[in-house]
Design a protein that fits this description.
This is 2-furoyl-CoA dehydrogenase large subunit. The chain has 989 residues and is an alpha+beta fold. The protein contains 26 helices and 35 strands. It folds into 4 domains: 210 residues, Alpha-Beta Complex (Aldehyde Oxidoreductase, domain 3), CATH 3.90.1170.50; 365 residues, Aldehyde Oxidoreductase, domain 4 (2-Layer Sandwich), CATH 3.30.365; 151 residues, Aldehyde Oxidoreductase, domain 4 (2-Layer Sandwich), CATH 3.30.365.10; 147 residues, START domain (Alpha-D-Glucose-1,6-Bisphosphate, Chain A, domain 4, 2-Layer Sandwich).
Length: 989
Amino acid sequence: MTAIPPTGGWTGRSVPRVEDAALLTGRGRYMDDLPITPGTLHAAILRSPHAHAKILSIDASKALALPGVAVVLTSDEVRRLSRAMTVGVKADVEAWPIAVDRVRYVGEPVAVIVAADRYIAEDAADLVEVEYEVLAAVVDPGAAAELDAPRLHPSLSGNVINERRFSYGEPDEAFEGAAHRVAVTVRYPRNSGTPIETYGVVASYDPGEDAYDVTANFQGPFSIHAVIARALNVPGNRMRLRTPQDSGGSFGIKQGVFPYVILIALAARLADRPVKWIEDRLEHLSASVSATNRVTTLEAAVEADGRVAALRWDQLEDCGAHLRAPEPATLYRMHGNMTGAYAIRHVAIRNRIVLTNKTPTGLNRGFGGPQMYFALERLMQRIAVELGLDPLDVIRRNLVPAGSFPYRTATGALLDSGDYQAAMTRAVDEGGLADLIETRRAARAEGRLYGIGYTAAVEPSVSNMGYITAVLSPATRRKAGPKNGAQATATIAIDPLGAVSVKVASVPQGQGHRTVLAQVVADVLGLEPGAIRVLADVDTARDAWSIASGNYSSRFAPAVAGATKLAADRIAEKLKRVAAGQLNVAADEVDLENGRAQARGNPENAVSFARVAAAAHWAPGTLPDDVDQTIRETVFWTPEQLIAPDDEDAVNSSLCHGFIFDFCGVEVDRLTGAVRIDKYVTMHDCGRILHPGMVAGQVTGGFAHAVGAALLEEYAYGPDGSFLSGTLADYLIPTVMEVPEPVILHYESPSPFTPLGAKGVGEGNCMSTPVCLANAVADACDFDDVTLPLVPARLADRLAAEEKPSREAPTRAAAAAKPGERKLTGEGSALVAAPRQAVWDMLLDPKTLEAVIPGAHGVRKVSSTRFLADVTLGVGPVKGRYRAEIELSDLDEPGAVTLSGGTDGALGFGRGSGRITLAETAPDRTTVHYAYEAVIGGKVASVGGRLLDGAARVVIGQFFKSLAAHAGGGKGTGSGLLARLRRLLGRGA
């Protein structure tokens, strides 16, 4: 039965999503759900516990001796079988998917262990012995840019791997004649997307063909396929890349799986078996892709009424330890849009890319936009404050004028369509700004901290792949040849029974490809959406694709769906010419409607769609002379507006430009610093809306993502490069309890540059919302500057009066921490049922130490005061094997001794010391008192502050409890950890 389409067609309506039936009933097919070949091996990755260190040696002999282990892949094999990955700038540096000679961030792969199952591989990873020489680390981008900073790559002259300066118009003259100069310096932190599904790869190698076959939840293939093939030393047709039909989210960061594609492919080659690797959550947080952190100083030349004449940008982009493709995309994606939604004709830009001892960065939802708009929109608010103007008036006076579209910006973007003033007016009126202003007045009258924030932004979509070449000088670009465009690919196929299938070179991560494309094709072919089947995976050996293919930069609706529309149009025109002969009418008189081809003036003169569509299969000889076939049509579409950067460095970095205007009201608690979002209004012009329900979902999801970035999320590092937010207990993401429902409004100005008039919408709030909330908090608290995330502790410190020092002196002053150290301290006591001399002798006996050290496998006495031990310890979700070295010093037999030493293992490292005193309190009774300080790093440190102190106390306590038990029993004195534990457990003192 054929459904009658609603008036106006299927497109633009919220039809039920095709994808939901499987997803809501648990029938999704994600990476880890796919069947694997019998005999497939499994990989685990040994990662660096240090942020910066030389690799002195790697001994995998013990791991290889473990039954079930097939291969241990290290840099030796990687360098022998592959080439370094492409670096996005011209620099004397190599980037490998594994640590070569030295490690440069906590979590960098050092070895890949392949075994019969993941459990054996993980156990074997603990047996790989790596000897490091720890080097000084640098994590602050400003410090890293200094000439005397620790250098990450000896082949470079410093850590600034690229610097470019740009000038558009006459910025110097504009600043000289300005009535006012207003500037801000902002630091945008690292954050990421934390999708439910982590990275996954299954790879095999065919030695006869010298070819790799890889399945990965990658969101390409785009240009990274060429990077992978080049690194593996094979032509592109021998690097087959496939993706699952379902992906548990990406938000851009699954482009970062490609180094692991290379590693697992090489592991499969060495093992001569297929190899599977699924990233765990700890790995994903500490070592996958995060957004860049950026330090920006932005200055404006401002007229008396708040109009901005010129901008001067200074951007320092922290891309982590390696500059991996497609970086520096995050820095240059917004290059054509550096004036945002404003008509500012004079711009100067200084861009620097710096390397630090942090994870390499990549694409994250809205990449480049959040960092750029946080500076620009904070500046617009500061202009209003410093000049005593209404922030709304400052925004209005600077907007691109209505009626001037397409509008060319100073830096080269071609803004396709819009009426920013009309959209803003609708948001103010329909969003209830007047009521919100009254709410602020009333709240402040009661002494509450209430503020309103505003943001205007242009949301670019469909990236011009040539924008990244703006990082090169014009001369270098001319030598390399032009790069530009945004090619999208779509195929419409009809089978012998007339059934229609759609295939696009774009991997969905929740955008509803199957639903929207079915709507688009159904409208063109006169069918119902249920009659169209959309295939939503990618196979580079089977599908039509190009260097720009993939799902990124909000390109689905404008580019992918647009190309699908063109393919449907092309095949529809052929079908009409076929039907014209059967209906005995002219081709331009044939309509495809309601599952039929019919004469426009006589609907009864009709033939079924299936009969017309299948003619090329069953009776190709009956086709008109001007119709070759109606079996398959493939369209490759790239817009003419996307040209390469010119010799003046102007570039139209994206095809489409939506408009966003947001305002919000927030209240900040004076005592706790907690931020409550009272109301949030977001206005979007995303061109023609193809599916209102999914657009609302995209906006809501982007808003939730942005609330996390604004209020909670930050990849935190210690000054020594240790990763401090390695679990979801420390890297906090928002839930439905923290995310209010935004008021979503729309203003439609269809793009003249896309086949359907659609623009992107999925990334906009990630660009606009963090700075809108920051502006509201600044307004509420009267702050000149604000730093994300807006966590309560940070705000409370600024709101609270200076605290008076405690009258009680501390009982014990801890030693001052060295830069970069995170100290764990504690003390306690235990009563041992043995004389003091016997306890002293036990502390120097290897067998006793092996019995009482928690997790010890063996203790060897190297000298009279030095011991080596193998230890297995677990802290929270982290458990690993460590090599421990213990040394005794300051011996005062039998009264006191200092124990010091360190541990090193696959999951982290630690060092510390403790003073033990022995007091004989009764015959055959000795009180042991201990006080310690320790420093830890690596993956074990990533479990965060909520677990570390308690875990350290438990481990130390276990040592002395075991010592007491080994000596014949005993109880704590009542003041230490053991005593407190006994009381908590109801066992008395």
